[in-house]
Design the sequence.
């Protein structure tokens, strides 16, 4: 039974009623026994947990310090393309938006990598819009070896692929795949995805299972906070994570919790997640899963990011560009969304060091797996 099949057995109405009916006693029990327990995750995500956020933050900081120390992994997105064959009303790359389109040539990719390597990054996230004919598996297979020569850890955030296609990329050195469901509400999902293959809700829900079977090291999950009820979407994200860990325990997992940001032709959030709410969300997942990596992008402001490092966040980007070729030729109006922390990577690291945290530029060497 796939997670899609399990998801169909869950009543959204009953889950929502339970989520919003939780009382203080259930939250207090969840604070004591939270690891791996979906009922506890529900309690910690509920409105009833809001008066306990400080207590949650203290506990989350303790767990994070025990498991990850003061280390914060550094990565940077490299946008390969802004071509897209989908219409999604929250995304600047949506096909109906009138903006210049491009995908990087090998020479342009090399220019971007030279700049990123020059800043010290050794972990990179390759990103593209979803356009199978021009930026599909053959393009990825041609570019990935070039990237793997220069970066120890390579992740991709592109359109969902077939299992054999993921396996081809893993054989070329792919380490991780980030693939976000956007929302687990199928009605809301259809409302925001009006054209293209991304309309297929089931295919997207089942994609992490194909990724896991391909042998990739790490899978990144997430929802776009603001498309639907963030508490319920986060709870179902927890169900999805729990399912994957039970069935594909060889993989590592990470979580991204992006809030909807302004973009060309984009929409306003349906439900607003406040800073306080995002803190509750991060702490709830840290208490639920102590091993989970949690990423925080430059969608969030500099001051807010600086105050979240100790609460559960383990990986950040810094000095990001969200447009293809944006490190070589910035401000070309090809970007996916507006970033909210425009500090350079050096400025971000200095702020991190001042708070006692340690930036980790490299934590993996692929040759290590063959030493035995």
Sequence:
């Amino acid at each position: 039974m796939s997670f899609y099949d399990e998801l169909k057995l869950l009543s959204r109405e009953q889950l929502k009623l339970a989520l919003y009916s939780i009382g203080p006693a259930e939250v207090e029990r969840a604070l004591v026994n939270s690891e791996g327990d979906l009922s506890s995750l529900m309690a910690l995500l509920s409105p009833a947990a809001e008066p306990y956020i400080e207590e949650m933050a203290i506990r989350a900081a303790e767990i994070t310090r025990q498991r990850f120390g003061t280390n914060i992994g550094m990565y940077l997105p490299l946008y390969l393309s802004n071509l897209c064959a989908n219409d999604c009303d929250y995304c600047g790359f949506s096909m109906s938006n009138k903006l210049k389109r491009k995908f990087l040539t090998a020479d342009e990719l090399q220019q971007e990598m030279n700049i990123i390597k020059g800043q010290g990054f050794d972990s990179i996230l390759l990103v593209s819009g979803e356009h199978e004919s021009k930026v599909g598996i053959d393009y990825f297979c041609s570019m990935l070896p070039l990237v793997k020569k220069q970066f120890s850890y390579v992740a991709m955030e592109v359109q969902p692929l077939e299992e054999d296609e993921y396996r081809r990329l893993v054989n070329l050195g792919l380490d991780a795949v980030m693939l976000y469901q956007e929302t687990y509400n199928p009605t809301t999902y259809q409302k925001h995805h009006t054209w293209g293959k991304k309309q297929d809700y089931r295919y997207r829900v089942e994609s992490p299972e194909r990724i896991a079977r391909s042998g990739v090291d790490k899978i990144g999950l997430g929802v776009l906070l603001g498309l639907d009820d963030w508490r319920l979407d986060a709870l179902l994200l927890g169900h999805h994570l729990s399912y994957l860990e039970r069935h594909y325990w060889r993989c590592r997992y990470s979580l991204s919790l992006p809030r909807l940001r302004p973009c060309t032709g984009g929409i306003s959030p349906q439900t607003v997640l406040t800073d306080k709410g995002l803190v509750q969300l991060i702490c709830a997942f840290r208490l639920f899963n102590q091993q989970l990596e949690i990423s925080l992008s430059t969608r969030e402001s500099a001051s807010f990011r600086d105050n979240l490092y100790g609460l559960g966040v383990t990986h950040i980007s810094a000095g990001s560009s969200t447009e293809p070729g944006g490190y070589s030729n910035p401000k070309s109006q090809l970007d996916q969304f507006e970033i909210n922390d425009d500090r350079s990577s050096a400025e971000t690291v200095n702020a991190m060091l001042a708070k006692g945290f340690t930036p980790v530029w490299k934590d993996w060497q692929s040759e290590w797996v063959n030493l035995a």
